[in-house]
Amino acid sequence: MIKKSVQQRAKKLRAQIDDLRYRYHVLNDPEVTDAMYQGLMDELRKIEEQHPSLVTADSPTQRVAGIPAQGFHKIKHTVPQWSFNDAFDELDLKAWEDRIVKILEKKYGSKPKDLSYTAELKIDGLHMVLTYADGQLMSGATRGDGKVGENVTQNIKTIETVPLTLKKKIDIVVEGEVWMDRKHFAALNRQREKLGEPLFANPRNASAGTIRQLDPRVVAARKLSLTAYDISAGAIPSTQAEELEQLKQLGFLTDDYWKVCKNTDDMLAVYHDWEKRRDSQPFWIDGLVIKVNQRQYQDDLGYTGKAPRWAIALKFAAEQGTTTIKDIYVQVGRTGALTPVALMEPVRLAGTTVTHATLHNFDEIARLDVRIGDTVVVEKAGDIIPKVVRVLEKMRSGNEKKVRAPKKCPICKSEVRRDEIGDKGRKGAGLYCTNKKCYSQELRRLGHVVSKNAFNIDGLGKKIIEQLVNEGLVKNAADFFTLTKGDIEPMERFAEKSAENLIEAIAASKNISLARFVYALGIPHVGEETAIRLATHFGTMRAIMNADCEKLEDVHDVGSRVAASIVEYFENKENQYLVEDLFKSGVEIKKQEAHKKNKALSGKTFVLTGTLLSMTRDDAKAKIRSNGGDVAGSVSKNTDFVIAGENAGSKLGKARELGVVILTEKQFLKIV
């Protein structure tokens, strides 16, 4: 029997240590010395060692587990994890704000007078998703592909700025950035250098590499931090500003420097201020994240296929360096676009060695007057894509060679056509190979067909596809599905077992959803989300193929340009034959994607709000779509039903205001 006084002492120690952690790591206001803090930890650890039954999941002694993991399990996010679109200058930012205002003006008749924005520091780290139930940390997961991430909960628990228990007993999903400060990053690389291990190129890589360590003790030793910046499920306040305040009140470390802005001028003022003092913080900053402040307007604006319309990452000027251009060659993409690429002498930028940089198109080459042999300034735009920004003309020797736009495709020697691409008028026009049989286009189209979000055929990489084409085994996408083990086994890199595995992977991919099938075709301007909407709206491949522009424009978010592209694609006889050949080769559309007119929810539009307990939002959306319904991101007069989960947000109030039917999760499950 454990004495009551011992139980009370353990409980008091846990509460006191957690409060001291909060004051030290979140408020930056240490109340005791490190030695005193450690003394309290030692006392609690001793009590728990003597009385193991007193150990609780949220005890500060449990931040570092003693046993290394065997690996990381996958975890499905309850809400999609989006990334932000980028803006690199004032023009990009202004164009983004103009788009937002235009959408809101269309909905409300004029620009809302209370429209405002938050400007937050964009910490250069690793995105993390934390799930709490009744105030207790249940899981920590990486973003992954936005739908499924890695469960790194044990490692997350080692981070002192992550509260194991919130200051309120609520269910909530929090997003944040894991980062390593300058001091610990430098120390880690010094240690790795002494051990002869490769150095981390930048703190983002160090954070990502650390959080995926199998031994939590290694993670704890590297002293990561987490800054929280978003509540994606649970009790979500009506503004982003209130959300940041709530996160701090719950016990999270937050960005203390965020500002509310009224317009682009305000945003740029914050941007230029931080551009000058970005090195003043212990963490690396690569820009600002600008968000529409009001949650209602965020809901109105919704999402594209990859990012929220209501937010944008305004990046700082990229790191620059000088190098020499050795050559300029041309890549041909799956749509036939000719992209000139500079081959350069190696240059170090943002911790990585760069040897190639995009030149976008030949109008850009003419604008910059880039020549082979030139000394140029190159930068990593957004610290990701290397590009040439200007030529150092004074460094010219006179031996530099001009590059002219090709009149023929460099791969197949066919004629090229010029298409205006209208990138704010700054990058001119693109050149396209007119030969759809072009070897480079064929390879890239075939690669798209087997990609993860299309047929998802495991083991069919770029080199294998090239080999299959060169051997004459694959001429179009349908040929993948008629391959045999006998075709594959004699090829280089294959043996009996590997050939067998590939054939099994191909066979497994033959049963495919209509949305994935449409996406796999590679129709210009038709991405994943558009493919889903087409599949949901029309229900069959034949209906999509026969639709005219008018019918296509009835589909949510399909405009005239996309509609014309779809019609043009299916008017081409070769594309019609390809679809027929795919079906003849054994490809089948999954039965649940039958025509929506035969479905119980045909023509009904649903909006989801709050956290669902029995399924993820993606699961709920799939059920709606498979039953013929549509899913929208915001509540409007066109909404038929709002499904309200736990801690429903502002969409619930909007639904009541408009008289939209509100369903509980249990009621929803009865109709699907």
UniProtKB/TrEMBL annotation:
Residues bound to NAD(+): S83, F84, E120, R143, E177, K291, K315
One Pfam short name: BRCT
Cofactor: Mg(2+); Mn(2+)
EC supergroup of this enzyme: ligase
Domain BRCT: 596-672
InterPro entries the UniProt entry points to: BRCT_dom, BRCT_dom_sf, DisA/LigA_HHH, DNA_ligase, DNA_ligase_CS, DNAligase_adenylation, DNAligase_N, Hlx-hairpin-Hlx_DNA-bd_motif
DNA damage found in the keyword field: yes
Gene Ontology biological process: DNA repair; DNA replication
The family this protein is said to belong to: Belongs to the NAD-dependent DNA ligase family. LigA subfamily.
HAMAP family: DNA_ligase_A
Protein name: DNA ligase
Organism: Candidatus Magasanikbacteria bacterium CG10_big_fil_rev_8_21_14_0_10_47_10
